[in-house]
Design goal:
The protein has 570 residues and is an alpha+beta fold. It has helices at residues 2-7, 15-28, 89-103, 115-129, 133-156, 161-176, 179-185, 190-209, 265-291, 311-319, 330-342, 400-408, 470-473, 478-490, 495-506, 539-549, 552-569, and strands at 35-44, 48-57, 64-69, 77-85, 246-247, 253-254, 357-358, 360-365, 369-375, 379-384, 387-390, 429-430, 452-457, 462-468, 521-528. 41% of the residues lie in helices and 15% in strands. The longest helix is centred in the middle third of the chain and has 27 residues, at 265-291. It starts with a helix and ends with a helix.
Length: 570
């Protein structure tokens, strides 16, 4: 709906806008109806019982993955949530391979483990593995398989003609609305819109040239690191000279920068006038932000934020009528529209592991302690008595330690908290397009896989822990989740039904808000000091199954015997 509604406003011969819509779809588009089927896993061992629930929700694809391994080794159970972005392949590959990667590390087999070093080595080593050719091929195969599965699912899905008819008036109405309103309705904030535009534009430059040049950028960046950069390619009036660093195609940096193009005085004059007009409008936006008292440069080097771009002007250009409407060719439009609908979307995982990644929140459960390793914004929380104890911290670009690392690596942070105008988190597995600065180690890249590691000693007051992706935490606080689960456990609620209920509780009724409740959801409860008891087989189901497996003659004989037995009882 978002694509079609905006597409009606853009002439198909405007190739940048037309192709840009492909990219926009992945940034805020949702299903017309949420997928509310919930996958449940239940298990445990002599020391604990767990339940994990996963729901796709409004998202076009399920990109979460997880691990529930009650017998990881003789002393330890392992639980993990991987929240994928840009594709599910990194999350799925981590789920399939990270536990064994961790277990095979020499340090993990030591009697007295250095847990911090073990998990740091595991996360960074596994992240390095993701960029190896054989693993990138495996990621590509996973991505291709996911795409094939989605295509089959789309073909099998029945089309509700009545629903399509009912959406036509809405579609036509949206086609007449201001573009800002249409974007907002589908979860794309117009304040973020230009970051998305620049993200797409930079990806196209990279695809065409094999590199992203930083010659005229306001802030320097590492080789290949400017995907989604929200910096403007023109220089501000009165700004200091550009950096002497020049990023070349091979990722090396030369110590000079030259302008080799001949000057065109007339063109320069027009550009200066246009730039001055844009700067006047930008200064108004910056003044408004200054009133809010936000200064992101106090505690770290680098720019406080990426320069603002003129959203209103772009929206007017896209939604307004064009002088070239007279040249509009309906047949050409229909042909390009067909290509548009079926074309791959840039930024949606073009290079698996490079343009896609995943958070990782891993919890090792021992009898006397918990060891938590986290990179990203998934979260683990412990219930101690009735209080929530956060076992991990969300990693966001605006946090002081994250901001310092991002700037040191040559990155930028946009006003809405996105690294180079792209990711709104600062640590993850994969995302190697943000990890191209060859002068610094992998753990110090602007997006880092280095985990925070915490060891929490268990007490008799600790009853359960939860691990979940941000599809939960964007809707509820840690304490709210603990209250939700504890109240139901105290009333005899089963883990399965509690997990299902919280998934539905966090699901938004529609997609017209700010995106809260529209994400994939993965949620697990680990009940401590509670031996797992396998549920008894359903006698009624077993009896029914036994009857179904009989031959017709055997079934008839069994029915006669049952009737005779009933008569005897009477």
């Amino acid at each position: 709906m978002l694509t079609l509604a905006i597409g009606l406003r853009v002439r198909s011969h405007d190739h940048f806008a037309f192709n840009f819509l492909r990219h926009l779809v992945t940034m805020g588009a949702y299903l017309s109806k949420p997928k509310t089927d919930i996958e449940i896993e239940i298990g445990g061992n002599a020391n604990l019982t767990y339940c994990c629930a996963s729901m796709q929700g409004w998202r076009l694809h399920q990109e979460d993955a997880h691990n529930t391994i009650p017998n990881f080794d003789e002393e330890c159970s392992l639980f993990a949530v991987y929240d994928g972005h840009g594709g599910a392949e990194v999350a799925q590959y981590a789920s399939q391979n990270f536990p064994n990667f961790l277990k095979k590390l020499p340090i993990w087999s030591e009697q007295e483990k250095d847990f911090k070093k073990a998990f740091e080595d595991a996360f960074i080593g596994f992240d390095d593995r993701l960029r190896q050719p054989e693993v990138m091929r495996a990621l590509s195969e996973i991505a291709a398989e996911n795409k094939r599965g989605q295509n089959v699912e789309d073909e099998e899905e029945e089309i509700d003609e009545e629903e399509l008819d009912s959406e036509k008036p809405q579609l036509m109405q949206e086609a007449r609305l201001p573009l800002r309103e249409v974007l907002g309705k589908y979860g794309v904030d117009s304040k973020d819109f230009m970051n998305i535009v620049m993200n797409y534009a930079n990806q196209q430059m990279r695809k065409k040239e094999g590199t992203v040049k930083a010659e005229d950028a306001d802030a320097p960046g590492p080789s290949g690191s400017a995907a989604g950069s929200s910096t403007r390619p023109t220089k501000r009036a009165g700004s200091p000279p550009p950096s002497n660093a020049k990023v070349e195609a091979n990722g090396s940096a030369s110590a000079h920068q030259e302008n080799e193009e001949p000057k065109n005085e007339s063109a320069d004059k027009e550009a200066d006038e246009a730039e001055k007009e844009e700067e006047d409008e930008e200064s108004e936006d910056e003044d408004e932000e200054a009133e809010d008292g936000e200064d992101k440069s106090e505690n770290g080097p680098g720019p406080s934020r990426a320069p603002l771009l003129n959203v209103d002007r772009f929206l007017r250009d896209v939604s307004g009528d064009s002088d070239s409407d007279e040249d509009y060719d309906e047949e050409t439009d229909e042909a390009e529209a067909e290509e548009f609908i079926g074309a791959p979307i840039p930024g949606g995982g073009e290079i698996p592991g490079d343009d896609s990644g995943a958070t990782a929140c891993v919890v090792a459960v021992y009898k006397d302690k918990l060891v938590i390793a986290n990179a990203g914004d998934s979260r683990a929380v412990l219930c101690r008595k009735k209080e929530a104890v956060d076992l991990s911290l969300d990693h966001k670009p605006e946090d002081d330690i994250e901001r310092r690392r991002i700037y040191a690596a040559g990155g930028t942070i946009s006003g809405d908290g996105r690294v180079n105008g792209g990711l709104n988190l600062s640590r993850a597995l994969g995302d190697h397009f943000y990890k191209k600065n060859i002068s610094i180690p992998l753990k110090d890249q602007m997006i880092s896989a280095l985990p925070d590691v915490k060891i929490e000693t268990l007490t008799e007051d600790d009853t359960f822990l939860v691990v979940a992706c941000d599809g939960i935490w964007n809707s509820m606080s840690s304490q709210q989740v603990i209250n939700f689960v504890k109240e139901r456990l105290d009333n005899g609620g089963e883990l399965r039904f509690i997990c299902e209920e919280i998934c539905r509780h966090c699901l938004a009724e529609d997609t017209e808000g700010d995106g809260t409740g529209c994400d994939n959801i993965t949620f697990m409860i680990v009940k401590l000091n509670t031996p797992y008891i396998a549920p008894p087989e359903d006698e009624e189901y077993a009896e029914k199954t036994a009857v179904e497996e009989k031959t017709p003659v055997e079934a008839e004989e069994a029915a006669v015997e049952a009737e005779e037995a009933a008569v005897e009882q009477e």
